[in-house]
Design goal:
By secondary structure, this protein is mainly alpha-helical. The chain has one domain (9-137). The protein contains 5 helices and 3 strands; from the N terminus they run E-E-E-H-H-H-H-H. It is globular, with a radius of gyration of 15 Å. The model has no long low-confidence stretch (mean pLDDT 84). Bound molecules: zinc ion (ZN). Zinc ion binds next to helix 1 and helix 2.
Length: 144
């Protein structure tokens, strides 16, 4: 995806609130990246929203476009892309002043992502999230 193009950011009610997906980057019929954020997240902290937008922006610019492929190299790149998006997300969240954060479950999730980033365990994080497991392995892994 060409970085010089505008990347629209839209609130959407099209993402199921029961799913683990909070935001996504989709490619329009014209081939343009569009970032969509679940509409019910409008009231979340600015730190959470900034981190979420930068995560999706990474996908919009660097997407490997091989989601759901079973090619091993493609899957490896996919996990690396997710980990890189989470690293950017973590760096933005931790750099945002505390007054823009809160104690919501989603901010606690951000704090966990920052912790994993410091521990250099973002690949493990990606592989532990059921939504990513479904993309990488076809279905969520059994809970161990
Ligand atoms: Zn992602």
């Amino acid at each position: 995806m060409a970085a010089e193009k505008n990347i629209p950011i839209r609130w959407t009610d099209a993402i199921d609130k029961k799913s683990t997906t909070l935001a996504r980057t989709r490619i329009s019929a014209e081939g343009l990246a569009i970032i969509e954020i679940r509409g019910d997240l409008r009231e979340q902290s600015l730190a959470f929203l900034a981190a979420t937008i930068v995560h999706e922006s990474y996908h919009a610019v660097y997407s490997q476009s091989c989601n759901y492929s079973t090619d091993r190299l493609c899957l490896k790149k996919y996990v690396e892309e997710e980990a890189a998006a989470f690293a950017l997300e973590a760096s933005v969240y931790q750099a945002t002043p505390d007054r823009f954060k809160n104690n919501s479950d989603l901010d606690k999730m951000q704090q966990e992502i920052v912790k994993r980033w410091y521990e250099k365990r973002l690949n493990d994080l990606v592989l532990s999230i059921s939504g990513y497991q479904a993309k990488v392995f076809g279905e969520p892994l059994a809970v161990r």
